[in-house]
Amino acid sequence: SLMNNEIEEISGGHECHQLTTLFLQQNSNLVRISGEFFQYMPMLVVLNMSFTELEELPEQISRLFALRYLNLSRTKIERLPDGLGKLKRLEHLNLETTKRLKSIYGLSNASSLGVLALLDSNVSLDASKIEELQRFERLERLNIDISSSSALKQLLSAPELAYWIEEVCI
Questions:
Q1: Rounded-to-integer distance, Cα 160 and Cα 165, Å
Q2: pLDDT by residue (tens digit) across 17-27?
Q3: Rounded CA separation 52/29 (Å)
Q4: CA 155, CA 163: separation in Å to the nearest integer?
Q5: 100-133 tens-digit pLDDT
Q6: 8-state DSSP, 62
Q7: How far apart are CA 39 and CA 73, in angstroms?
Q8: What would the pLDDT profile of 20-64 be if each residue is shown by its tens digit?
Q9: What's this model's pTM, rounded to 2 decimal places?
Q10: 66-73: Cβ within 8 A, 24+ apart
């Protein structure tokens, strides 16, 4: 746990071959993490970087193949790394209150995703998102904002997706 410190930047690679859980949340000055930092963490299962000032994630985060839980809530990220969908074991992704996030494009390949939290993010439910979200075969819980009445109607016409919704803001 490195949570609640005054860390501003994390760089370099650290050999942590057996590390399974890493808490970096509540580092309110943390703006950058280098890709090399994640290079030697093949067993990482839980990663929490919430409540930081991170604006982007290194592409190397997509190589954390054991990762099951990723919390990026209340960060300033604008996009997800292209390879994030390669994380076949990722079960829980929290992107709540990521007001700068523009898209979840490419995430639909994360075949084990069961929980997707997007409430109060910049990603709201529209026709294209409904189609993308229906690709998640194991989705069980979804928190999301709905941006229009037409999106709400489409959601109600997709009962399997409506069933997954745990919390919604219209």
A1: 9
A2: 999 999 999 99
A3: 7
A4: 10
A5: 998 887 787 888 999 999 999 988 777 777 777 8
A6: G
A7: 23
A8: 999 999 999 999 999 999 999 999 999 999 999 999 999 999 999
A9: 0.91
A10: 66/20, 66/42, 68/92, 68/112, 69/45, 70/94, 71/25, 71/47, 72/98, 73/97, 73/98, 73/117
